[in-house]
Amino acid sequence: MKKPDSNKIFLYLIFIALFLLSFFLDKKIKNFLGLARNPILDFAFGILTNFGIVVAIMLIIPLLMLKDNKKIYTLLLAFFLAVFISVVLKWMFVRQRPAEFIHPFIKILSYSFPSMHSVVVFSLLPVLASFLPKQKNFWALFAFIVPFTRLYFGLHYLSDVVFGAVLGYSVGYFLLDFHNKGRLWMPKKH
Question: What is the pTM of this model?
Answer without folding.
Answer: 0.84
